[in-house]
Specification:
By secondary structure, the protein is an alpha/beta fold. The chain has two domains: 213 residues, Spore Coat Polysaccharide Biosynthesis Protein SpsA, Chain A; 192 residues, 3 Solenoid (UDP N-Acetylglucosamine Acyltransferase, domain 1). Helix content is 20%, strand content 25%. It contains ten helices and 34 strands. The longest helix has 21 residues. It starts with 19 loop residues before the first strand and ends with a helix.
């Protein structure tokens, strides 16, 4: 896995391969596809001072060896740096690029199958036919259809530059001769770099055939700029939307709905326009999510109704038939079956029992400036509008909190708690006030 590129066109202090696609660093998207073909070993080639990359891969649970490419002298040079890790390896060596996250496991399996074919090619190259051939290297085939050479666009002849079969850079190489091949690479070219593509010509000189597997252009997009990052995000989102609909969800306006890489959507789920899912969301069957919701790190049980304009933050655990309405925010809280919080509320670090009702403007005051504390609201409790529940506090089941109350002490089961001031009446107040204003 070659990931030493600086990504200068990204204009970012973040290593290029860590820029996220659908909420996940692009290199991890590619590693997820790679994991499906179960490689024996992963060798990660990075540049100096790129510990953020290796840390991210390790945090994702992948086991790998690190190789540092001190000087960035081309793809062939990058593979040369991994020779200690590859010494004695007799299997297939798959060379991938951390900035090309759209390649599927199906394509990788197709390449491995070609490497195992009867003619035993030394190298299998993944080619494609892009609409804009631009600076892609050209794949030159012989009369039998075998790969004869890869010619860089800067060094191609007039005939070669017209060739529409281009090089993606992805290869499968016979591990028994890989180190021999890369040891023969030369940097006598316009860029002064060691091109991995030259191993095709070297293999042919050794009497070994090379082959091409043709892939889809969309799958082989490399990311070198923010524009290309946005393009790949669109492609990934279209894949995720299509998958959700194929699995039984209704998306009212698919192009305005954004999923995360790990969003799980059940059957008969309906999602309205302009809904955004961050990582860690699971939605069970029959849920309705109305327009303009933002949901991250949340679990939503069957037949719940969320939104419009609701925000579910990490730790939100929403029970069956719960109603979360407009401008309600839930964080690190469990709402049991049938709870209703239909408008203008903040519920944080709270456990709410079945069928409790949370009135408009209710706030659980969970932070005292030093620590977070829990609020517990019992089953069937009724919390009046504009109530503030100052944690830690317990509201008993079947109890009622009067509108506008600030609750700082526990409320017993079935009790009514009211803390607002008494209402005071001043007769003829407006008439007297107007009279004084006129006199002035």
């Amino acid at each position: 896995m070659l990931a030493a590129g600086l990504g200068t066109r990204m204009n970012s202090i973040l290593p290029k391969v860590l820029h996220p696609i659908a909420g996940r660093p692009m290199i991890l998207q590619l590693l997820d596809s790679l994991a499906e073909i179960e490689p024996d070993k992963i060798v990660l080639v990075i540049g100096p001072n790129m510990e953020l990359v290796s840390d991210a891969v390790a945090a994702a649970g992948y086991h790998f060896e690190i190789v540092i490419q001190q000087d960035r002298l081309g793809t062939g040079h990058a593979v040369q740096q991994a020779q200690k890790s590859l010494l004695g390896f007799k299997g297939n060596v798959l060379v991938l690029y951390g900035d090309s996250p759209l390649i599927t496991s199906k394509t990788l399996a197709k390449m491995l199958e070609a490497r195992s074919s009867q003619n035993n090619p030394a190298v299998v190259v993944l080619g494609f036919k892009p609409l804009d051939r631009g600076e892609y290297g050209r794949l030159v085939l012989d009369k039998t259809g075998n790969l004869e050479a890869i010619v860089e666009a800067t060094e191609a002849s007039e005939d070669e530059i017209l060739n529409d079969l281009c090089n993606s850079g992805v290869m499968v190489i016979d591990g028994t001769i890989l180190l021999e091949l890369v040891s023969k690479l030369s940097n006598k070219n316009i860029k002064g770099e060691f091109y991995l593509t030259d191993i095709i010509k070297i293999s042919r000189q050794c009497g070994r055939d090379c082959s091409v597997v043709e892939g889809d252009e969309e799958e082989l997009i490399g990311i070198n700029s923010r524009v290309e990052l946005a393009l790949v995000e669109t492609i990934i989102q279209d894949r995720l939307r299509e998958s959700a609909m194929e699995n039984g969800a209704t998306l009212n306006d698919p192009s305005s709905i954004y999923f995360s890489y790990d969003t799980k959507v059940g059957q008969d789920v309906t999602i309205g326009p302009n809904v955004v899912f961050g990582p860690g969301v699971e939605i069970c069957n029959g849920v309705t999510i109305l327009a303009f919701c933002h949901i991250e790190g949340a679990f939503i049980e069957e037949n719940a109704i969320i939104g419009p304009f609701a925000r579910l933050r990490p730790g939100a655990d929403i029970g069956e038939n719960v109603h979360i309405g407009n401008f309600v925010e839930i964080k690190n809280s469990t709402l049991a079956n049938g709870v209703k919080a239909n408008h203008l509320a903040y519920i944080g670090d709270t456990r709410i029992g079945e069928k409790a009702n949370i009135g408009a403007g209710t706030i659980t005051c969970n932070f005292d400036g030093f620590k977070k504390s829990m609020t517990e609201i019992g089953a069937r409790a009724f919390i009046g509008s504009n109530a503030a529940l100052v944690a830690p506090v317990k509201i008993g089941q079947d109890s009622t909190i009067g509108a506008g109350s600030v609750i700082t002490k526990d409320v017993e089961e079935g009790a009514l708690a009211i803390t607002r001031a008494k209402q005071k009446m001043v007769d003829n107040y407006v008439k007297k006030l107007r009279a004084t204003k006129v006199e002035k």
